Sequence to fold (235 residues):
Amino acid sequence: MTASEDLNFCFPVRELSNDRVKMTPFRASIHSPPFCSTASAHPELWAHMPTGPFKTVQDFNTNFLEALVHRDPGMVSFAIIDKTKQPSAADEEGELAGMMSYMNSSSTNLCTEIGYIIILPRFQRTHVNSNAVGLLLRYALQVPSQGGLGLRRVQWQCSSVNAPSIRAAERLGFNKEGIMKWHRVFPGGKDRGKVHNGRQMPRGSLDEEDYARDTVVLSHCWDDWEQGGKRRYKQ
Fold:
């Protein structure tokens, strides 16, 4: 697949693939129905994120893809295809295993972030997440002469109480840089199934239903990649 010209992203977008996983730009007409048919039954998948959960395909398309992804030149979402499974309605090479995005990207500062990682339950604790992250890291940090974007920094942010995400990032070669306290407010977080940061709410808080998140910041930069990161994800 050649670079997609209809995506509002600040870098060229193309399919990324190895023997086990394929990352293809997320298409609402193809990928939203199978994604939402599973994700809608598991609202906990969105518990540490500022958006979601989404109950219907229309809700997801309108309030995630259209409102967040398509309007932001720093963001693009990929459907994750597990190529070890049989062909499906979602893709002729395998089954839809989840979604992953580049976000907070800057062509000026040569950086991006891997986020909005949703691995559907049946594909968790398999090869899917590590291979998908590896493909996004390789494309971001590989030099242009080798088919990459030549970026200098790839970031990973997650809730300070999301221990599995922190462990996954460190296992995949990301280095912890610090914690941003009270980084995000989750409006109506209690009713939306969000996870609070565990800290006492500010004195005089107007709405105790608005949960908050402390955010752990990790990174995998170009020098980490050159000093051994790329060997980890050698294709």
Q: What stands out?
A: Residues 1-5 have pLDDT under 50 and may be disordered. DSSP finds five helices and eight strands in the chain. The CA atoms of residues 112 and 168 lie 18 Å apart.
